[in-house]
Amino acid sequence: MSASLVNVSNGEIHRAIEEVARESYGRLIAVLASRTRDVAGAEDALADALVAALVTWPRDGVPKSPQGWLLTAARNRLLDRIRHQQVHDLSAPTLAFMMRELEETPDPETLPDERLKLLFVCAHPAIDPDMHTPLMLQTVLGLDAVAIGRALLVPPKTIGQRLVRAKNKIRKARISFELPSAKQIPERLEAVLNAIYAAYGNSWEDATGADHRIAELGQEAIWLARVLRDQIPENAEVRGLLALMLHCEARRPARRSADGRYVPLSEQDPREWQISLIHEAERELAAAAQMRTLGRFQIEAAIQSVHAERAHGGSTNWLAIVAFYDQLLRVAPSIGAAVARAAAHAQLQGPRAGLMLLDEIAAETSSYQPYWAVRAHLMQQLGRVEDAAEAFDRAIELSGDVAVRNFLIGRRGRR
Amino acid sequence: MLYALMIYERPSDFERRDPAAADSVIGAWRSYFRAVSDAGIYVGGNALDIPDNATTVRLRDDKRQIQDGPYANTKEQLGGVMVLELPSLDEALEWAAGCPAASYGAVEVRPVSTSTDERVTGERQQW
User: pTM value?
Assistant: First the structure.
């Protein structure tokens, strides 16, 4: 292992370690775990390697290939554990298999990117769907249970225990680290995309940005989608999801006023949108359209793309939005899409048309906040004061976000 | 790696085992078993008799408690077990999906605990 013996400060070394940890974490876990199927073991070994780096690098200099150094250190650590049989619950043949696989770990200089396999393992149908997102955040991005718990609003202890259980299942049931067969890819990919989008959705709920870890979750989700896009560039839905998240992310700065008030999309100042993200979203969506396989995420991205027209001084084309929502409801029906569709129809044809659509789905929506918020606005437009007040009250009651609650209270009028 | 495929069936499925009943199901099982054998993955297993003929035993305070019937009184009951040797859960799920019971009942796939086997029997299994 060659090291460059230049004089660098400890601060720089720590930054170098942080950088390589962030860039390489998922790659290294994927390489190690795909050979042992022991995700927790790979995490422990990499954590040890990072600690070793903190000791060694300031003394000997940053190695020429920091990633290769970490891989070698982590692999040796894993081999040690296996040699000393610290893995009590595995049979001897399995241990021998793990040893062999690890010893054949590829040259650190030409490390294969196996993060895609890891993503498919995290969203495997044999794993509890609720754990798909947390597993990805932990194994691919290296977030700990505390950060994940905070971001997903679950007690860290609970999430920690469930992560351990999921990783045990991966190892003990021997979930395969191979890519799914071509026949299975669309179905398996859907779970991966849903898990990434769920991570993004969680960051979106928390618009206050009070917790930077949660705000960063949005960035991490976009980063995961970019990894996926690089690995399967020919998949239209992957690009659709990336475009959708980029469009939403572009508006993040405009979602709250300077004094923290909630600003609905229709009242946002497009000059506050991040134009470079909008451009990137448009490029992804255009590339997806070339592939001619329509899907849920592309349609949702297309809707956001129509809204983004305002960034170029255009007005909102509600006819196009209504058409996309109609299509979305056929391709991927959901309560969220149905409520948004009703709101879009109301924009185009008036509140009465929107209310008719809302009435069609009333049965399933008693605790769905957007349903009551849209209903309240439409009732208000129709001058049905009593009905509007009732719907506002339900929407306010169901809003977890203080800024949204205050916005709705303002619209309802003080009583 | 050994996987146990546990086959769960409803009462009506058990009834279909009657030789007088239509044997399309038996035919499906016959060809499934042939496929499993030909693939060289079959380790062992058996079909189980109907749950009515089961007896459950517990020893509590040195007293035998004998109960007529299966362990759990659920609608779907264990109807058989098959042990296959396969490299990964994904392939075990593939074989489970191809099992005739997957379409009329349910197939639970569970890894065999070879390490526990070793500790109990004192032998390394030869699979």
Answer: 0.82
